[in-house]
Amino acid sequence: MRIKTWTALAAVLLLAGCSSDGSDGSGDDGRNGTVDPATLCVESSCGEKTVLLTIPDAENLLFSADGRLFVSGGTNVFEITRNGTEWVAMPLLDGSCNFTGLAIQRNTLYANCFDKQLYAARLTAQPRLQPIHTYDIAAPNGLTDGPDNTLFLANGPLATNALPNPQVRRLKLDDLDPMKVVTDEVWTRQGLLAPNGVQRSGNTIYVSNSGLGGLAEIRAYDIQPDGSAGAGRQVASLLTVPDDFSIVRDSFLVAGFGTSQISLVGADGNVVSSTSLLSFSFPSQVRVGQPPLFAPTDILVTEKGILGDNVSPIGNRLSVFRRKATTP
After folding, report:
1. Half-sphere exposure (CA, 13 Å, Cβ side) for 247?
2. If you write DSSP's letter for every residue of 253-302 in order, what string do you get?
3. CA angle, corner 232, sides to 231 and 238, nearest 5?
4. What is the pLDDT of residues 81-97, one digit of tens each?
5. What kind and span of H or E run contains 210?
6. Within a 10 A sphere around the Cβ of 273, how many other Cβ atoms?
């Protein structure tokens, strides 16, 4: 989330002072974990947070199918590696940009940025991001891969220099060249007030959405045979301003930006468990771990902190939440 709703902004002020090959997403492809959600610890009573390293204005995180970890933030996109006990964040852009959503398809990493451009990098040993497409929207945010060489992204929640224009867009990539965008079009606006995160499972696109009157939800849109969007439906109602989220089998892990906690939401749309209020510093994305860097029951969280602040100790970090060690 780059610019939140006014409700989230008020909370900030108060507290401060698809797979790599475009498969159907049913496997453990870096986007969606296959771990049983019932085995996850998403409560402060059973788990604890460990800060791994500093990521300025940490925003989003994504694993590749082979377990490489990428994290976006207010200055760059980083690949996270480990050298012994030391965690290392390697920037992928020669320069700086305010990055948001991430996606991987056909061994290519994609990253949205608030300079209104889509960046991409081949996942070589040392990937380097470059702009490949310019958007006609002001707030390109959540991003996910789609079937048939497509990407889906949210415009929202709000832009710094434009009126709200809530929508999900669909990009068609060249069938032979994943670094080339062929088409860019509005996919759906239905039911969206302030869309933020975008994720996919199979042929369904999920969107975190918030707006007036305390509305906070995850919405679902089925991809029709012709590629168009089906009618939207609410699959979860939330009591926090949501940022991005992830899918674990039939459940959701949600970053509650407004309440500074993370939650596990079941298939019925109800919250199964949550960490304590203020247990994270305005989390922006949450995702289960992937080997070899993490165990499947580890939960990775980007903690954004104060919006637009890249340097303070409030947020600006990548953390892991895992079950407390038991003593004999």
Report:
1. 30
2. EEEETTTTEEEEE-TTSSEEEEPPTTSSSSEEEEEE--TTTS-TT-EEEE
3. 165
4. 999 999 999 999 999 99
5. strand 204-210
6. 18
112-152: per-residue pLDDT in tens? 999 999 999 999 999 999 999 999 999 999 999 999 999 99
- What is the model's pTM? 0.90
Radius of gyration of the chain from its Cα atoms, rounded to whole angstroms:
18
Place of tokens 């049913």: 26
DSSP state of 229: B
The DSSP code sequence of 53-76 is EE-TT--EEEE-TT--EEEE-SS-
Q: For residues 217, 8, 137 and 111, what is the CA-based torsion angle, rounded to 10 degrees? A: -80
Q: Report which secondary-structure segment, H or E, holds 8.
A: helix 6-16
Residue from 184, 194, 192 nearest 110 by CA:
184
| Cβ–Cβ under 8 Å, residues 105 and 99 | no
- First and final CA of the chain: distance in angstroms? 42
Q: How far apart are CA 302 and CA 319, in angstroms?
A: 6
Which one, of 280, 314, 262, 260, lies nearest residue 56 by Cα? 314
Tell me how far apart the alpha carbons of residues 251 and 267 are, in angstroms, rounded to a whole number. 5
How far is it, in rounded angstroms, from Cα 224 to Cα 211?
Answer: 27
Owner of token pair 């960490």: 275
**From CA 99, how far away is CA 71, in angstroms rounded?**
9
